[in-house]
């Protein structure tokens, strides 16, 4: 895919990403910033996009990861944004922000657990994660669709066991 075709595809898909950005941020300005960050990252990393894969799923993944990274950075800093006209930043280390959705799992440990998977499980799992359908994975890997489903199921099971330490305790 040429740079021009890639840019056109990004521009065409940007409108479908806006509702997802709004759902994540719940603020119009933050959603626009997230969408812009996503488009910049996608464009600068266009060489990493595998042609023939699902561009929309790739963009959603970039957006979600960008949002999580920004959120975790904000939590680590313990920074509050004053929403008055002057937009002051007030640092406060005495306040701890907890969020059960993003605080339960450490992204680095997830990637490490995925890397530990045998290639036979990791490949179909990552293809499914990137947006491929079961039949597309089966065609690409030249294996039966039932085998694809089984390997993805086993990969999820192994990851769940490996990341059990992060299971929320009541």
Automatic annotation (TrEMBL):
Alphabetical list of InterPro entries matching this protein: RNA_pol_sigma-70-like (IPR039425), RNA_pol_sigma-70_dom (IPR014284), RNA_pol_sigma70_r2 (IPR007627), RNA_pol_sigma70_r4_t2 (IPR013249), RNA_pol_sigma_r2 (IPR013325), RNA_pol_sigma_r3/r4-like (IPR013324), WH-like_DNA-bd_sf (IPR036388)
RNA polymerase sigma factor 70 region 4 type domain boundaries: 108-159
Pfam families per UniProt: Sigma70_r2 (PF04542), Sigma70_r4_2 (PF08281)
Keyword Transcription regulation in annotation: yes
The entry's keywords: Sigma factor, Transcription, Transcription regulation
Start and end residues of each RNA polymerase sigma-70 region domain: 17-73
NCBIfam families: sigma70-ECF
Family the entry assigns: Belongs to the sigma-70 factor family. ECF subfamily.
Annotated protein name in UniProt: RNA polymerase sigma factor
């Amino acid at each position: 895919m040429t740079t021009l075709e890639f840019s056109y595809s990004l521009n065409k898909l940007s409108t479908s990403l806006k509702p997802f950005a709004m759902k994540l941020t719940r603020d119009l300005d933050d959603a626009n910033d997230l969408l812009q960050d996503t488009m910049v990252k996608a464009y600068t990393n266009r060489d990493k996009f595998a042609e023939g894969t699902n561009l929309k799923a790739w963009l959603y993944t970039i957006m979600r990861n960008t949002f999580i990274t920004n959120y975790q950075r904000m939590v680590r800093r313990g920074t509050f944004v004053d929403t008055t006209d002057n937009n002051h930043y007030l640092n406060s280390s005495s306040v701890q922000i907890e969020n059960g959705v993003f605080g339960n799992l450490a992204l680095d440990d997830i990637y490490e657990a995925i890397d530990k998977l045998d290639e036979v499980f990791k490949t179909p799992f990552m293809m499914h994660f990137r947006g491929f359908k079961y039949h597309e994975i089966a065609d690409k890997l030249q294996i039966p669709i039932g085998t694809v489903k089984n390997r993805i199921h086993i990969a999820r099971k192994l990851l769940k066991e490996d990341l059990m330490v992060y299971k929320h305790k009541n």
